Amino acid sequence: MTEKLSDTEKQILLRLAREALEFGVRGKKLPPLIAASLTPRLLENGASFVTLTVNRELRGCIGALEAYQPLAADVREHAVAAALEDPRFPPVDESELSRIHIEVSRLTAPIPLEYSSSEDLLARLNPHEDGVILKYGRRRATFLPQVWEQIPDPEDFLNHLCAKMGAPSNLWRNEKLEVYLYRVEEFHEAN
């Protein structure tokens, strides 16, 4: 992510996410993206997460950690997936659409974090800035940087992240995990 998105680009992505959410929840096929209506940056491959909330409570969150399709398409795909495929929640119902608030996070490419011990790992984290990916064998989990708002303590953050990947919460203290960091450019619908 070399350059930040313009306010216009952010609004386009939020509109695309809202449209995709509504089409998906209503079981309708999304219309094709019209490349001529998008900026070059929105047509470049990009990774995003789309977070849905109702009254500031999480209602769904799905995304990609690595870019594999144009950013505009990525946001649309993840808006639908957050509404219908997040295994933590039942699918969003049409009656909820007016109460859903959409947040989009555009991710930088994850970079590996080298560390020597659990204490070193804690020291190298930048709370409220770093998104963190933990990998252990075939297990993997991530928290966006926004999760620091709910879990500000780095030890608790890592404990919860280990639990999210289905491992003992203290695994990061006892095993050398693969750790990757990324940053996000986050924006959301007006309240």
Task: Walk me through this protein's architecture.
With 191 residues, the protein is of the alpha+beta class. It folds into two domains: 7-107, Hypothetical protein ph0010, domain 1 (Glycoprotein, Type 4 Pilin, 2-Layer Sandwich), CATH 3.30.700; 111-183, Hypothetical protein ph0010, domain 2 (Dna Ligase, domain 1, 2-Layer Sandwich). It has six helices and eight strands, in the order ααββαββαββααββ. Strand 5 and strand 6 (139-143) form a beta hairpin. The mean pLDDT is 95.
Task: Provide a concise account of the structure shown.
The chain is an alpha+beta fold. It has helices at 7-25, 40-43, 71-84, 118-124, 154-164, 171-174; strands at 47-54, 57-63, 100-107, 111-112, 131-136, 139-143, 178-182, 184-188. A four-stranded antiparallel β-sheet has the order 2-1-3-8, covered by helices on one side.
User: What's the helical proportion of residues?
Assistant: 25-40%
SSE pattern, N- to C-terminal:
HHEEHEEHEEHHEE
Name given to the CATH architecture of the largest domain = 2-Layer Sandwich
Measure the end-to-end span: 27 Å
**What's the story with the biggest beta sheet?**
4 strands, antiparallel
State the strand order across the main sheet.
Answer: 2-1-3-8
Strand-residue fraction? 15-25%
Overall number of strands: 8
Which spans have pLDDT < 50 for at least 5 consecutive residues?
A: none
Number of domains: 2
Number of helices: 6
Radius of gyration: 17 Å
Any idea what the shape is? globular
Q: What is the residue-mean pLDDT, rounded to a whole number?
A: 95
Q: What's the CATH class of the largest domain, please?
A: Alpha Beta
CATH superfamily of the largest domain: Hypothetical protein ph0010, domain 1
Structural class: alpha+beta
Q: What is the CATH third-level topology name of the largest domain?
A: Glycoprotein, Type 4 Pilin
